[in-house]
Design a protein that fits this description.
S16 Ribosomal Protein, Chain: A, about 100 residues, globular, 5 strands, alpha+beta
Length: about 100
């Protein structure tokens, strides 16, 4: 089964990720077949070939949860929301406890 997931690149403390198409049993770092986009978490910048990703998903590829969340955040297409679960937080954060 093909998977669309993130592959970490960059140097120490300066990560960036490539959105890659790979076999789900192979490591994403070196065995990917196609680069479909990139994600820079420091700049919060996500660039992807959305039509190509959607075509691959229609052919049977599965996006990872993080890729699906990034695609949904950038396109607001409900199609990508089916690939991840929204989890309700239980309890309060430290800031909420102090208030």
């Amino acid at each position: 089964m093909l998977a669309i997931r993130l592959s970490r690149h960059g140097r120490s403390k300066r990560p960036f990720y490539r959105v890659v198409l790979t076999e789900h049993t192979k490591p994403a770092k070196s065995w990917y077949t196609t680069v479909l986009g990139s994600f820079d978490p420091l700049k919060h910048e996500f660039i992807a070939d959305v039509p190509a990703i959607k075509a691959l998903i229609d052919q049977g590829a599965q996006p990872s949860e993080r890729v699906a969340k990034l695609l949904f955040a950038s396109t607001k297409d409900e199609f990508y929301k089916t690939f991840y679960k929204e989890i309700e937080r239980k309890g309060m954060t430290k800031k909420e406890k102090k208030a």
